[in-house]
Amino acid sequence: MGVKCVGIKMDVQGLMPDHMDDILSNWDPVEKGAPKPWLLYTVPSGQNPTGATQGTERRREIYRVAQKHDVYILEDEPYYFLQMQPYIGASAAPLPPPKSHEDFLRSLVPSLLSMDVDGRVMRLDSFSKVIAPGSRIGWITASEQVVDRFITHSNVSVQNPSGISQIVLHKLLDEGWGHGGYLDWLINLRLEYTQRRDVILQACETYLPQEVVRWDPPAAGMFLWMKVEWQRHPDAAVKSQSEIEDAIFEKSVDQGVLVAKGSWFRADKEAEAAGMYFRATFAAAPGDKMTEAIRRFGDALRSQFQIS
Fold it and tell me: Half-sphere exposure of residue 46, counting CA atoms within 13 Å on the CB side?
């Protein structure tokens, strides 16, 4: 389609606005072979694959950079309502759930759309992560002008989502649960995902060799992003980062566990890798299986790094 993607550096809160500003401020169309970027695609909550969630001030900073450079923002939020309770440690008692629907809604990080004063944000939402992946139902929220053009494009492409899926969701959400019932379901999901997240983090604390791997507790979504200090690998002087990543991945498969290689998710395959990462998920497997998977990944790392 001729789309040229440019990756932006990330930290524990996701996209770094200073780096975005630097890229746009110093963009040379001749050198880059492309006009200055005018569209930002971002997953602010529980980003895939890093699990990072942009805080309120981080979102404001990103929006200010978008205003400065006249950038339109696609705010993709499939995991927005999978924001979890804060992680307070393996031995700590669980935090109490929200006392009411209002408390739950107030606890959510404000969206970029809620900060938009220029009509430069389109928010994308989906039922795929909170009801059923197979529903294939989502919706957009944007300015009237953008929505009109979106409808026009939809009319000559997909036309509309599955009619059966729309009927099922209407019966469930409008005639069955109602808004209050849907919020009760989202609160239940928060507690379920919090428990799942805590299980995988406790397994990491127990079984992973922390001298060569580290992670940050995700605040939303369903992914755990683990950074491996590959420079400490015994063969780091004679093998490339990519070769060591492949070796760790293959050893993990031999141990019967599948973790995703971080290199699979790079926006710019030609740019120098910022580090070595592996992604795990806590979305579906039961707790004992997640714990066993992390134990096996830990065994693979110990074998590769020759740690007893």
Answer: 23
